Amino acid sequence: MSRAESLYRLQLLDLELDRARKRLHEIETLLAGSPALEHTRAESARAEKALRLASSELKSLELDAQALDDKIAREEQRLYSGAIRNPKEMLDLQHELDVLKRRRVALDEQILAAMEQVEQLRADELRCRQALAQAERNFAEDSAHLRAERDNLTAVVEGALEQREALCRSLPARDLDLYSAIRAKKPNGVAVALIKAGACSQCGETPSSQLIQQAHTGAALAMCSNCGRILYAL
Hints:
Blueprint: H1 3-32, H2 35-80, H3 87-169, H4 173-185, E1 192-196, E2 199-200, H5 209-217, E3 222-223, E4 230-232
């Protein structure tokens, strides 16, 4: 195996490791939490809070109505029991009862509106709760698939690292240093470029016939004069 071929094989392993590690990072991010799930959870919490507040308001109105009913009953008992003989006092009490009954009618309207609101909010809360349950099931299923993918990728990384270590032991230190230096400078991590159709596959530069021959034989490393990558011909 020529020096360039060894470096090309090393690059294949490194690119495979890059892809696997990138995907592993994505998987860890996905497993850490789902924005869609958090949004659904927040919606459910808001719906639950709105229902709780509306139910509390309805209960308060119902208690007010009960207290008003009790007061009306007491005042009617006073009015019709014969305990009050003074006509003016009786008239005042009758007027007060009329006011209380009008207030009671208005309170009934408030209670009806509150009941309708509670029913609507109860339906909203149920819908949000069901949506949350479904979102949690989806996240659990997705997480199971992601964990399985993570396990597979972890095995891929371990296998590639073992192959890489064995390959590196067979390479001259200067070749490794050159390869690593070039790879670190390139955004795509490609340090070894194939010669395709007589040109560098990475930058399109056409090497001299001497460089192409050198890349074929692999006796010495051929470098692209334009992008500075190591050239390799299959």
